[in-house]
Structure formats: structure tokens, C-alpha cells
Write a structure and sequence with these properties.
Immunoglobulin-like, six-stranded mixed beta sheet, five-stranded mixed beta sheet, 32 strands, 5% helix, mainly beta, 48% strand
């Protein structure tokens, strides 16, 4: 055998002996671990914690016959209620216990047990405890090893302990009372650069001063764009978080601090097209940022809008000006309602968009007249009204 090969064998044996001689940290470490997440939004009686005290796997040859363990904890945040032995090594040491004292002076929980006939063995926790978490939302606390004593014959003599942190979460109740709700479910735009204003109600009952995050997402942003978003009252806490436009979608997020049970916002949407029948939707959601309020918004509200052509007044039929408010028309129940600010018009005529006169029945008084919708087509119509010699026109949808 060559010297080089001998050197390689000696080096390999040295590595093997070194690795096998390393102490096993895990086998000499007592681990305290939390096994249950405590929901601080639940009732006081449901805020239960569960911990394991674990030695790792114990063999018969380790000669574990008894134990005395002392755990230190914060009595203002934890109350121990039960010692759990089922499925633990302590169940094999029932000749002398197990016994426990959940609250010794100074915030010490003691537990101990022993066996006379045979050692305990297995890959199970040494013992387990459960209790109630008394801390508030956002509080944390830990349980640490104060002292541990085993029987003199127990083979593992060097011990260290790891503290166990009680894990908490604030998981609130989902409710429809917290919501972002549109004023209407459908809107219409009339030609390129026309703007519609969409009211949005942000409802935050019982959340005064809570920070909420609102998000709107518009699908259809090729034909429409969001110009502005603003509160209908002074909102000094309004903070724009994000505005993204990608492909056919626009997403906007903002945060604000709730000053009342409801805040009103206005979303101005601009039409980017003269084409008709272009559609888009806006979804609105709200999220309470601080989970300690224990409230979660449940719903998403949606509004839809579409475009129609901006039909100009047919000057070959009308020599008139478009009515900007001196007399105006609305629709209701299939009829057309005319509300005049200057008394009853001297004359009223109704036409199709092609200029054809439509017969109609007119009833009402000096301020409000109704054109019965029975004879009207299911399409836009043009109404021409004369006041004081001046002719004004209005296009309305039946």
C-alpha cells in the first residue's frame, strides 16, 4: 500500500472519529415550544395556549426515572389551568405523580413525577401544559426554564433550556357593516372626454380613528380613465398608496383615518372614446389596517358603466340651443317628466333622432308636465320646448 493511500485512510478515520465524538446538542437541550396560536380577538375564555416541554427521544438505557421541572412565566399575562400527561413521558412515571403546582411564588409553575419499576422511554414530550392568555392584542410573552432536576442515574447530565414564546394573532370577525359601497350600480358616459362622477360610500362603524385602506380596480381602462378621487369633506389623512395601469386594468389604493361612521368619496371617470357600447367595471374593497380592531370587511362592491355616442342636435330640424337648465327633462317609469324653472313652455314637440315627429300625450301643471311613454319608442328621443320665443332642446332616454 502506498504512503499516499495510507495518509488518505488516516485522514478519513480522523474525520469520522471527530464527527462521532461531537456532543449532541439536541439530546441535552430541554425545549419549551408553543403548540397553539392564541387569537386575541376571541373571548377571554377562548384565548388558550398549549406548550410542550420536550427532551427529544429518550431510550431505555438513558434510565430516566424521575423529573422535577420549574417553569418561569409572567403571571400578568398567563394563567396555567391544566397539566396534560396523555401521550407524554410523564404518563410512564405515575408511581410518584405526576403532580404540579401551577403558581408558586414569583411566577413559577412546578411539575414532577417518578417511576419505581422501570425507566421512561419514547419520542414524546416530557410533559405538556395549557392555560389562558391574559395579554392584549399585540402582546407577547414567553415561558422559560428556571430549573430542572432528574434522578441521579439519568445518563444525560448536561442541560440547557430554550424559552417558548406564546404565539398570538388578531383574527377579526368578518362583517358586511364595514364596506365600500357605490351609490349606483350603473352609469353612462356620452362621448369622448365626457366625465361621470361616481359616489363611493366608505362605511366604518365603530372604527373611529382606525386607519383603513381602500382599493378600487377598474377593468376596461382602454376606453375609460380615472381622473380624480377626492373626499366630499376635508380629509387631511388621505394618503395615496398606489396607482397602477397595466393592460386593461387600473388599480388605485389609498389610506385614510376614519373620522366618522361613513366617509363619502367621489370618483371622476373620463370616457376616452366616441365608440358606443364600450363597457367597464369598478370593484371597490376596504381593509382595516390595524388587526387589533378585530373587524374584517367581507364584501366587494361593483359598479358598471358603458359608453353611448354623443349625438349632436340635428340643426336641420331644430334651430335651437341645447337646454342647460332653464327647462330640463328626466325619465321615470317609462314616462318623460319635464320640470320647468320658468313655467309651462309655450310649445313642446318630440322627435326621433332622425327628425320624425312623435305623437304624445301631455299632462301636468305649470311646473311639472309628463309625456306619457306609451306612444314613445324604446330609444333616445329629442324634445324641443319654446320659452318666450326661444327654442331649447334636450335629448333624453326613455
Amino acid at each position: 500500500m502506498s504512503i499516499k493511500r495510507i495518509v488518505r485512510i488516516i485522514s478519513l478515520l480522523t474525520v469520522i472519529l471527530t464527527v462521532s465524538g461531537l456532543p449532541s446538542v439536541a439530546s441535552d437541550t430541554l425545549v419549551i415550544s408553543s403548540q397553539r396560536m392564541v387569537n386575541t380577538c376571541s373571548s377571554a375564555s377562548d384565548r388558550k395556549f398549549l406548550i410542550y416541554v420536550d427532551l427529544g427521544e429518550i431510550y431505555f438505557s438513558d434510565s430516566l426515572m424521575s423529573f422535577d421541572i420549574f417553569l418561569k412565566y409572567d403571571t400578568t399575562k398567563l394563567v396555567f389551568t391544566d397539566m396534560l400527561t396523555t401521550g407524554t413521558l410523564s404518563a410512564q412515571m405515575s408511581d410518584l405523580g405526576p403532580v404540579w403546582r401551577p403558581k408558586d411564588p414569583g411566577g413559577i409553575c412546578y411539575a414532577g413525577g417518578g417511576s419505581i419499576l422501570q425507566p421512561a422511554k419514547g419520542k414524546q414530550p416530557l410533559i405538556a401544559f395549557q392555560g389562558l392568555f391574559k395579554g392584549g392584542c399585540g402582546d407577547t410573552t414567553s415561558i422559560s426554564l428556571d430549573e430542572v432536576i432528574f434522578n441521579d442515574e439519568f445518563r444525560r447530565r448536561s442541560w440547557s433550556g430554550t424559552s417558548g414564546t406564546i404565539m398570538t394573532v388578531a383574527r377579526g370577525t368578518a362583517t358586511n357593516e364595514i364596506a365600500a359601497v357605490f351609490d349606483r350600480q350603473q352609469f353612462i358616459t356620452r362621448g369622448k372626454d365626457s366625465i361621470i362622477s361616481i359616489p363611493l360610500h366608505v362605511k366604518t362603524p365603530d372604527l373611529i380613528n382606525a386607519v383603513v385602506e381602500c382599493e378600487i380596480q377598474m377593468v376596461g381602462s382602454v376606453a375609460f380613465g380615472i381622473d380624480t378621487i377626492y373626499a366630499l369633506r376635508d380629509d387631511s389623512t388621505f394618503q395615496l398608496i398606489e396607482k397602477k395601469v397595466f393592460n386593461d386594468t387600473t388599480k388605485i389604493k389609498w389610506r385614510t383615518q376614519a373620522r366618522s361612521s361613513q366617509t363619502e368619496y367621489m370618483i371622476n371617470v373620463r370616457s376616452l372614446t366616441n365608440e358606443k357600447d364600450r363597457t367597464a367595471t369598478i370593484d371597490a374593497t376596504i381593509q382595516v389596517i390595524d388587526s387589533c380592531y378585530c373587524r374584517v370587511a367581507l364584501n366587494t362592491d361593483t359598479t358598471r358603466f358603458c359608453s353611448i355616442r354623443n349625438v349632436p342636435v340635428l340643426t336641420s330640424v331644430f334651430e335651437s340651443v341645447v337646454d342647460e337648465g332653464s327647462a330640463w327633462c328626466t325619465t321615470g317609469g317609462g314616462d318623460i317628466i319635464i320640470q320647468s324653472l320658468h313655467g309651462q313652455p309655450e310649445s313642446v314637440e318630440v322627435f326621433t333622432l332622425l327628425g320624425e315627429r312623435i305623437p304624445f300625450v301631455l299632462r301636468g301643471d305649470q311646473q311639472t308636465m309628463v309625456i306619457t311613454g306609451v306612444l314613445l319608442p324604446n330609444a333616445p328621443v329629442l324634445i324641443r320646448m319654446q320659452h318666450g320665443g326661444e327654442i331649447r332642446s334636450k335629448m333624453v332616454m326613455k
